[in-house]
Design a protein that fits this description.
Elements lengths: L2 H14 L15 E2 L12 H13 L21 H13 L4 E5 L2 H12 L4 E6 L4 H9 L3 E5 L4 H11 L5 E7 L11 H10 L3 E5 L14 H4 L8 E5 L9 E5 L1 H10 L1 H4 L6 H15 L2 H20 L10 E7 L1 H13 L2 E2 L2 E2 L9 E6 L6 H15 L1
Parallel strand pairs: 1-10, 3-4, 3-5, 5-6, 6-7
Antiparallel strand pairs: 2-8, 7-8, 9-12, 11-12
Helix pairs in contact: 3-11, 4-5, 12-14
The structure holds pyridoxal-5'-phosphate (PLP).
Pyridoxal-5'-phosphate (PLP) binds next to α4.
Length: about 375
């Protein structure tokens, strides 16, 4: 089949199955935005952005605020903002080493291929994010996916494979992006120690939200020092762009030498890196917002359950499982018409027959807003 005929046919198939994605314009006045990853409300806050831009205006347009770095970090792009940001991160994570990347996607497609080889095995949670799956595919190691949060199965896999591989890696998200449930990091640390595995934890949806200082679930569980590589992103609660790994100095040095998405791409612009440093300090101090968000999540789940609506998880991310693709698309559309910004999440992002609305709560929501939304949802579901 000719290339363009094939493209047309595949687009038609997606349309027929209600799975065609499109880029929507979401600008406008919403009663409630339940779809952003701005969990603490930092991106929505004019105050902090104004304060940051004020500091730009007050300084001569120094190198710190340039809009491009024009080069890779390994060449001339490693501007002083990086050293500051990595020092700030190191302080947050008990003095461990930090390495900043262009995004969480770059981190996840780069780290596993850099550190693993064909004699290794990677064990990955079945519901890990697409960027982790792409990292598995790019890696030379063998990989197996264990059932979601099934640590008995994980232990069986560790026990039955440990003798056959140079090294086993375990990779998991902490707060799962589509289900809102939380990995058991204590158990994972125990398993990692028992089987001499390397543990990698992606805290993309936990940074800023969990832990006294917002460092994530690893801080909540007191295991910052026990995880070989902690990954965090700036694009969600931290209201910026970029990502980081928290690790030891040897692994940091190795990644700088071997991680292709760090080496072969233009570094982040200085203005972004400096904004990340600025906003990180603000988010660390957002203890009340973190507490409020936990309470909101609990309230929302309790209320939905009381009204007979199926939810999952224990965090600020709340999936409402609809099952059918078309029904979730239609319901999300109706909610948007009522002023609630909600999107359907369909396969392949989630497993077949588990299409859902994904609510991501943020600290700017109050209980009244939430009740209004739940009333509207219940009326639409009928
Ligand atoms: C678990 C997880 N890791 C990584 C990423 C990618 O992060 P970024 O948006 O910084 O590329 C995402 C994005 O949604 C994610 O959910």
């Amino acid at each position: 089949m000719k290339f363009y005929d094939n493209i047309t046919e595949r687009l038609e198939q997606l349309t027929d199955h209600d799975r065609l994605r499109s880029l929507k314009n979401t600008a406008g006045e919403w009663r409630l935005n339940l779809s952003s990853n701005d969990y603490i409300g930092a991106a929505a806050s004019d105050v902090w952005q104004r304060e940051f831009y004020q500091s730009v205006n007050n300084s001569e347009l120094s190198d710190n605020f340039k809009l491009t770095s024009s080069s890779s970090r390994l060449l001339t792009g490693n501007h002083p903002g990086y050293r500051q940001l990595e020092a700030d991160l190191s302080l947050l994570y008990d003095g461990r080493e930090a390495l900043v990347f262009n995004s969480g996607y770059h981190a996840n497609v780069g780290i596993l291929p850099a550190i693993s080889n064909p004699k290794d095995l990677i064990l990955s949670d079945k519901l890990n994010h697409a960027s982790i799956i792409d990292g598995l595919r790019l890696s030379d190691a063998k990989f197996k996916r264990y059932h979601h949060c099934d640590y008995d199965q994980l232990e069986q896999l560790l026990a039955s494979n440990v003798a056959d591989y140079r090294q086993i890696f375990i990779i998991t998200e902490s707060v799962f992006s589509m289900d809102g449930d939380i990995a058991d990091l204590d158990r994972l640390v125990m398993l990692k120690k028992r089987y001499n595995a390397i543990l990698i934890v992606d805290e993309a949806h936990a940074v800023g939200v969990f832990g006294k200082n917002g460092a994530g679930i690893c801080e909540d569980c007191g295991v910052i020092d026990e995880i070989d590589i902690i990954i965090g992103t700036f694009g969600k609660a931290l209201a910026s762009l970029g990502a980081y790994a928290i690790t030891n100095s040897e692994l940091k040095k190795f990644l700088i030498n071997k991680m292709r998405p760090l080496i072969f791409t233009t570094a982040l612009p200085p203005v972004i890196v400096n904004w990340s440093s600025f906003i990180l300090k603000k988010i660390i101090a957002c203890r009340d917002e973190r507490q409020h968000l936990q309470q909101l999540g609990q309230l929302c789940r309790d209320e939905l359950t009381k009204r007979g609506i199926d939810t999952r998880g224990t965090s600020h991310i709340i999936p409402i499982i609809i099952g059918d693709d078309k029904k979730s698309v239609v319901l999300a559309e109706k909610l948007r018409n009522e002023g609630f910004l909600v999107f359907p999440i369909r396969p392949p992002t989630v497993p077949p027959n588990s299409s859902r609305l994904r609510l991501s709560l943020h600290a700017g929501i109050n209980e009244h807003d939430l009740e209004e939304f739940i009333d509207c949802l219940c009326n639409l579901i009928g």
